[in-house]
Amino acid sequence: MVVLKNAPRSAKELTIQETVAPMTAPTTVMIHRLQLGLSALLLAGLAGCGSLAQLGIGTTPIKRVKQEWHRYSKVYIQGKVVMQVNLVESWVYKVQDSTGAIWVLTDQPLPRPGDQVSIEAKVQYEPIPLGNQDLGEAYLQEQVRLGTKPASVGAQE
Questions:
Q1: What is the CA radius of gyration of the chain?
Q2: What is the model's pTM?
Q3: 150, 109 in Cβ contact below 8 A?
Q4: What b/e sequence results for 6-27 when a residue is b if at least 16 CB atoms lie within 10 Å of its CB, and e otherwise?
Q5: CA separation for the pair 151, 116 (Å, rounded)
Q6: Which of 118, 126, 69 is CA-nearest to residue 95?
Q7: For the chain, give me the number of helices (H) and strands (E)?
Q8: How many whole angstroms separate alpha carbon 93 and alpha carbon 114?
Q9: Comparing C-alpha atoms, which of 77, 83, 84 is closest to residue 117?
Q10: What angle do CA 79, 92, 107 make, to 5 degrees?
Q11: What angle do CA 141, 89, 76 make, to 5 degrees?
C-alpha cells in the first residue's frame, strides 16, 4: 500500500499500518539476499541449460526420443559411447543411457567408446518403407558437444 506524505489517511489504513509490525533491518537484509540468490540461480539455469545437461539435469531419456521423435526438434542427452562408424563424409557414434541407445551424426572429433558425453542435438528421422510398414529410425544430429568425460583406463569395453 502506498501512503502519500501529508495526505489524510483513512481509519482502515491506520488500522492496517498499526497492526503490522515493522520489519527489522536484519530481516529485510535476509529477504533481499534470498531474492538475489534465487534470481541468480534462475538466471544461471536459464542461461546455462546446456551446463545443466552435463550433470544429467534436463536431459531426455533416449527411449523417449526414439519413441516420440516427432515431438522433439532439439534434445539434450547424456550417455556412454558404445560404438563409432566412419561414413563417407561424416561420422556416427552410438550413445547409450539406461533406457536405450541412439545413433548420433557428427562433424566434430569423435568421442571414444567408453566416454561419457553430453550433447545438444537436432532430432532427425530416416524413413525406411518396407511394404506397408515403416522400419525407419530416429537419430540425432549433434549441434553442440557440451561435455565429454573420458573412459577410465582399462574400463573400455
A1: 27
A2: 0.62
A3: no
A4: eeeeeeeeeeeeeeeeeeeeee
A5: 7
A6: 118
A7: 4, 7
A8: 11
A9: 77
A10: 105
A11: 15
Residue type, 146: L
Grid cell of 134 as nine digits: 515403416
Tally of CB atoms within 10 A around 49: 13
Geometric angle at alpha carbon 44, from 34 and 119, rounded to 5°: 150
> How does pLDDT run along the chain (157 residues), one tens digit per residue?
555 555 555 555 555 454 555 555 666 666 766 666 665 555 455 444 445 555 555 789 999 999 998 898 999 999 999 999 988 878 999 999 999 999 999 999 999 999 999 999 999 999 888 888 888 899 999 999 999 999 875 454 4
